[in-house]
Design goal:
This protein has 305 residues and is an alpha+beta fold. Helices cover 63% and strands 14% of the residues. The chain contains eight helices and six strands; from the N terminus they run ββααββββαααααα. The protein has helices at residues 20-29, 34-41, 95-109, 119-154, 160-180, 183-198, 203-266, 280-301, and strands at residues 4-7, 10-16, 48-51, 56-66, 71-81, 85-90. The chain has a six-stranded mixed sheet with strand order 1-2-6-5-4-3. Helix 4 (119-154) runs antiparallel to helix 5 and helix 4 (119-154) runs parallel beside helix 7. 20% of the residues are buried.
Length: 305
């Protein structure tokens, strides 16, 4: 699809992974503020909104999932809105935005006239779709945590793969929180701007975005708490199992020490009572077995076994 999409009186220019040449063409074609030109050329780590008399500049970040590493990273969105024009740029490809543009294109081809269009409404649709994507990812996140939880309680030994999955989930919950938290203030400011420019026509839509953002933050908080809890639980279980193994080894060492003492005593080059008797060996063996049983009984009575 062409980068420029004409939707009735509104023009929508969109591109992903813009090159330096693309950015220079945008700067040359449109009379942008110097601050916006600098922001487009640099990587912005924080969300921001700049409102001017006749246009608005917006920087947002949304999580993008890397299927190979199973981790989230930030995808920067830059949006410039005029009364009848919108420019949107994304650092990485986003199929969801392409799908929105295709739906508008298909509606235009079909001659539909009942769909809404304005730069601010297109902005709402983009954010709404990205929020739905985040919520879908968080639902899968929760299901994955359930699988990990089952693996923690079913496993009997250290599971390296399970630990790696848990650490990745913990990292992802932190990344999601850092990406989504700044948007709370941005949405509040957006609601004020839309209320001022459109006299309440779109305020309901942006209130819906605030509701979804609150829902996302609630899901992220639960996911973060769950990953921390599972990590602590896993560490506790491993500590218990390790201590149990150490206790068994300690008891085994104590029994072996007693047996070693007895066999060492009778192996010395000194004359001991009964050393020439054929029953001495049996006596020594049964004595060691008896001592081992007494030792086991003692440790079990103390609750150490």
């Amino acid at each position: 699809m062409e980068k420029v999409l004409k939707i009735w009186d509104v023009t929508w220019f969109h591109t992903s992974k813009p090159t330096n040449k693309d950015l220079e063409n945008i700067k040359d074609q449109y009379d942008l503020h110097a601050i916006i030109e600098d922001d487009l050329s640099e990587i912005n780590t924080q969300d921001k909104i700049d409102v001017y008399d006749d246009f608005m500049f917006l920087v947002l970040h949304f999580p993008k999932f890397n299927k190979k590493t199973k981790t989230y990273f930030s995808n920067e969105f830059n949006v410039i809105l005029w009364k009848d024009f919108i420019i949107s740029l994304t650092k990485f490809d986003t199929n969801h935005i392409d799908k929105i543009r295709e739906e508008y294109f298909e509606d235009l081809k079909a001659g539909k006239e009942d769909f809404k269009v304005s730069p601010y409404y297109i902005l709402y649709v983009m954010i709404d779709v990205m929020y739905d994507k985040v919520l879908s990812g968080l639902n899968k996140f929760t299901r994955d945590l359930g699988t990990i939880e089952s693996g923690i309680f079913e496993g009997r030994k250290l599971n390296q793969a399970l630990i790696e999955k848990l650490l990745v989930k913990r990292r992802n919950s932190i990344v999601l929180k850092h990406i989504m938290v700044p948007q709370e203030e941005i949405l509040v400011e957006l609601s004020k701007v839309t209320l001022k420019k459109y006299e309440g026509e779109l305020d309901v839509y942006f209130e819906d975005l605030q509701y979804k953002q609150d829902k996302i933050m609630s899901h992220i908080a639960i996911a973060n708490e769950s990953t921390v809890t599972l990590s602590d639980t896993y560490n506790s279980l491993m500590s218990i199992r390790t201590n149990s193994m150490i206790s068994i080894l300690t008891i085994f060492t104590a029994i072996i020490w007693i047996m070693t003492f007895i066999t060492g005593l009778f192996g010395m080059n000194v004359i001991l009572p009964g050393q020439n008797s054929v029953y001495t060996l049996l006596f020594i063996v049964w004595s060691m077995v008896f001592i081992a049983m007494i030792t086991l009984f003692f440790f079990k009575r103390k609750g150490w076994l």
